[in-house]
Amino acid sequence: MHTALTVKNSPTAAPLLRLAERWRPAGVYLALLEPGGAVQWIDPQMPRAMNLCLTGDRTLADYVGRRGHPAAGAPHAVLPVVPGVQVHVLPVQRRRKIHGWIVAVMRTDMVRASEELQRLAGRAQLDTWAVAQQMVRVPQVPEASAAALAGLVGQMYDDLALAGTATQELSGVTEQLTAVYEEISLFYKISSGMRFSQKPDAFLENVCREVQEIGSFGAVGVALARQEEDAAEPVIDEMAVLVGSCPAPRHEIMAALHGPIAAALLAGETQIHNDRRDLPPGATFARRLACVPLIRDKRILGALLALDKQSDAELNSADLKLLSNVGNQCSIFLENASLYQDMQGLLMGVLHALTRSIDAKDAYTRGHSQRVAELSRTLARRAGLSDEQCERVYLSGLLHDVGKIGVPETVLTKPGRLTDAEFEAIKKHPTIGAQILGNIKQLQDILPGVLYHHERWDGRGYPYNLAGEDIPLMGRIICVADSFDAMSSTRTYRPALPLETVLNEIRRCAGAQFDPNLARLFVALDFSPYRRAIEEHVPIIPMVEIAI
Amino acid sequence: MNAKSILVVDDETHILHVVSLKLRYAGFNVLTARDGEEAMDALAATPVDLIITDFQMPGINGVELAGQVHATAARRHLPIILLTAHGLTLEPGVMERAGIVLCLSKPFSPREILSRVTDLLAPALVVEDSGALI
């Protein structure tokens, strides 16, 4: 006997609540039963008298209980409870399974104080006459229409339930679509932000940050592979980038995760560990781990790691897909950046070899070009030029004496004074140098340093007697560095001068030979690395970061 | 404090769905429209606090729509965000004349849209609360 009225919030009940509102005025009252017969929902605004017909005895419960799992197309039944009242029961059926029962109760005729009504009222301890009176006020439904109306209620319920399911599905799809949008936006950002000339760390850090946010990971990092000269295999032993909430210092994380990283590289595919027990004993800082190997053409570039989800949930297939895709893009970037660095290295190696060989014709000028390059770059930096411009100055300094290749060796290495003719031969080296390099498109911007490094501020230099600011800045910078190095090193015609003497000479010639501003900046530089280079007669090791 | 209302205009329904869902989850009321005409109708019926509109649409485009909205005194203050295909650049001055405060290119990140919308609507919230200028 169901005397308690319960309202349960459920997706199955919701459509019925809306229908009950519509049908109540017509005298059709609704309820919803669970498959087993328990009342899930019964219209609270149903007149007590009608409610009694549903819950007053076991007729309804027994019917439903007996039905169990009927065959497809189970009939829509009308139960006899009280004469004048029809109780229609319709199954809510999906694919042969009963999900519940819709009950529609209607008054189709006058309801007298019949035996059945007395019995129901008695059980509920209600006065039969009072109940009969209430029945009079319940709107009457034509008997001939009752079945059709009940069927209609059932149909409307099905349609509403279907619409509800569709709406839910749409929400689900939209959520997934939102995640896809984020991924697409991320990949777009990554590809358009790729500049192979930039340092990997800056690029990777940006990528890790974005991935960490989008995937809501605890921490995301990249370990890069390092190829030692004589080693057979590259080694991964340093976490280059780590963003997010880092649960331990980088070296600790790196040491602990060595095993899983190696395993992922060996397998050649992303590996996910959701169980702490799968992780090495040292990895106490994480619960979940994803390792994405970064490999291109069998070349090991590094590994992308994700530690934990912020919600502490397991890493799932969506995470796997995101990390693998990002890993792939990182691999492409790293491979290209590496090739680019290789190219750079090759180019600079060749240029250094070239200039060394020119300088080496005269033992006293060994290392000269590289020292001038280094000094020029330092002066350029002090003068406020951009990093990129400073690197161009370096290159120009390195190549400033390339033209000497066109000067007879006997003249270059002659001890003692030169004749006028010999001097004229040497004075050709700036123009010869500019001719040699002139056809190389990528070196156009460094030609001024090669061509004008012997011009003087007072206009008495060569080859064109340019004066003051008409002399391109690069030429003026290299002029100072070149003269300084020449005075500071031993030459065929005189020994090296002490540092202070040289600096005084530069001060003295400021405004005459040298740009006064550059001279002022130059004499304030720190010369200790230079001193060592001169003593050891070796070039200062250049640090080349940005390319041609 | 009532929730802020946002109108989203785009002829591609998947974008309407994604942007609406993201903003609704964050607590905003969201109205949608599939072209300029529907948008103007929606605005006539309901006041909003911000408009997000696509550029390329049948009928009037996003900039023209923004211009029309911006031209009405009652709506001159409305911040308008324009979604454009990547690579599209507007002439200088066009944005200002149309009341467009921000251009976002597709593919956009839903997270970023939410973040920008929150920034644009937040200061107003704070001022209303305390009445004092920040």
Describe the structure.
The complex is a heterodimer of chains A (548) and B (134). With 548 residues, chain A is of the alpha+beta class. Chain A folds into 3 domains: 13-165; 200-336, GAF domain (Beta-Lactamase, 2-Layer Sandwich), CATH 3.30.450; 360-536, Hypothetical protein af1432 (Orthogonal Bundle). Chain A contains 20 helices and 10 strands. In chain A, strands 2-1-5-4-3 form a 5-stranded antiparallel β-sheet, with helices on both faces. A 5-stranded antiparallel β-sheet of chain A has the order 7-6-10-9-8, with helices on both faces. The model of chain A is unreliable at 1-9 and 541-548 (pLDDT under 50). Chain B has 134 residues and is α/β, with parallel strands linked by helices. Helices cover 44% and strands 21% of the residues of chain B. Chain B contains 5 helices and 5 strands. Chain B has helices spanning 13-25, 36-45, 62-71, 94-98, 110-130, and strands spanning 5-9, 29-33, 50-54, 80-85, 100-106. In chain B, strands 2-1-3-4-5 form a 5-stranded parallel β-sheet, sandwiched between helices. The longest helix of chain B is centred in the last third of the chain and has 21 residues, at 110-130. The model of chain B is unreliable at 124-129 (pLDDT under 50). The chains are: A alpha+beta (548), B alpha/beta (134). Chain A binds chain B through residues 170-171, 174-175, 177-178, 181-182, 184-186, 188, 213-214, and chain B through 14, 17-18, 21-22, 86, 107-112.
Query: What fraction of the residues of chain A are assigned to beta strands by DSSP?
Result: 5-15%
**Structural class based on helices, strands and sheet pairing of chain A:** alpha+beta
Alpha-beta classification of chain B: alpha/beta
CATH superfamily of chain B: Response regulator
Q: Overall 3D geometry of chain B? A: globular
Biggest sheet: strand arrangement of chain A: 2-1-5-4-3
How large is the count of helical segments of chain A?
20
> For the record, what CATH class of chain B applies?
Alpha Beta
The major beta sheet of chain A can be summarized as:
5 strands, antiparallel
Radius of gyration of chain B: 14 Å
